[in-house]
């Protein structure tokens, strides 16, 4: 019995299609979806006549573009449901020396963003309940101005408060394909090892009294901002 070779099923990408899609991803300011790539290839007559599975052909073209940039300083990556050129991950830290660093978000703003990301859609009152402190309107305004959150309708409770969720820009900013790429909450928990500095004895022996003149001034803590609930 003679073995009969199986027909080759790999869809080969035409070089002209690869070149066109490479230019599309490079020129687009936003991630390019596979549907947009398929529409462009069809509109430009770049789909070979013998192709009966357009989706498979589009994926083969994308794979060819990705292969072109293997090991290069930039590469197309899947972000927020589409393809976009990004700096190679191992080179990004080196570029911060010469590139302008974007404005950092305050801790309260980052905490609020994290709560929205993991509990969306959620209301302002729910965010305050999780954080345990009141939420300044300035925090929400900062996240809105940065296009990191968007309103997701209103909750059907008295007052109908706005529901907040993360945006597509949130996914792009953090390099996520979708929300399933967020680290699991249990992965973020850190076990603090026993350390005499971090975990002092509950009742340490009293030390020598300090000269009041040598004592540092007491630190002051700013009061939390409290805004009236939205109307």
From TrEMBL:
Keywords carried by this UniProt record: Cell cycle, Cell division, Chromosome partition, Cytoplasm
Compositionally biased tracts (Pro residues): 199-209
Protein name: SMC-Scp complex subunit ScpB
PANTHER family in the record: SEGREGATION AND CONDENSATION PROTEIN B
Domain of life of the source: Bacteria
GO biological process: cell division; chromosome separation
Upper taxonomic lineage: Bacteria, Pseudomonadati, Pseudomonadota, Alphaproteobacteria, Acetobacterales
Region (Disordered): 193-231
Pfam families assigned: SMC_ScpB (PF04079)
Record's keyword annotation contains Transcription: no
Record carries keyword Transferase: no
Gene3D superfamilies with a match to the protein in the record: Winged helix-like DNA-binding domain superfamily/Winged helix DNA-binding domain (1.10.10.10)
């Amino acid at each position: 019995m003679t073995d009969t070779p199986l027909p080759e099923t790999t869809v080969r990408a035409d070089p002209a299609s690869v070149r066109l899609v490479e230019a599309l991803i490079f020129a687009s300011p936003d991630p390019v979806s596979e549907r947009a790539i398929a529409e462009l290839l069809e509109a430009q007559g770049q789909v070979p006549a013998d192709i009966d599975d357009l989706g498979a052909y589009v994926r083969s073209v994308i794979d060819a573009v990705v292969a072109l940039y293997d090991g290069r300083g930039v590469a197309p990556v899947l972000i927020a449901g589409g393809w976009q050129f990004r700096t190679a991950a191992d080179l990004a830290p080196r570029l911060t020396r010469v590139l302008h660093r974007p404005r950092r978000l305050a801790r309260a703003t980052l905490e609020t963003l994290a709560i929205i990301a993991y509990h969306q859609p959620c209301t302002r009152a729910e965010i305050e309940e999780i954080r345990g402190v009141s939420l300044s309107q300035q925090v929400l305004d900062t996240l809105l101005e940065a296009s990191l959150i968007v309103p997701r309708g209103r909750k059907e409770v008295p007052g109908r408060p706005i529901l907040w969720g993360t945006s597509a820009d949130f996914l792009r900013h953090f390099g996520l394909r979708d929300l399933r790429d967020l680290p699991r909450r249990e992965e973020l928990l850190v076990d603090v090892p026993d350390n005499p500095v971090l975990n002092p004895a509950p009742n340490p022996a009293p030390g020598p009294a300090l000269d009041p003149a040598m004592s540092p001034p007491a630190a002051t803590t700013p009061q939390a901002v409290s805004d009236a609930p939205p109307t």
